[in-house]
Amino acid sequence: MIAIQISLYPLEQKDIKKPLDVFWSILKENNINYRITPLSTITWEDDEDRLYSIIFKAYREARKTGPVVMVSTVTTGDKDRVDELLDYIRK
Hints:
Blueprint: E1 2-10, H1 17-29, E2 33-36, E3 41-45, H2 48-63, E4 68-76, H3 79-90
Antiparallel strand pairs: 1-3, 1-4, 2-3
Helix pairs in contact: 1-2
């Protein structure tokens, strides 16, 4: 299991919601598990290659709206550890 925390920063854009919506729609269309938090999006998946691929696909699509910076933190571990992280952010 892998979890990736992503912060997406639209630059020089009047509508910063548009690139975020594009990003999240790609995750949803590809059935990626994700949770939106006030400062980032947490994604998780058993297949890390698939998760990396979809995240970068979403990033490429978000960049089509204008300049965007993406920062990510990758955490690997067993399902229990990832569930513990998700439980913590759900509070």
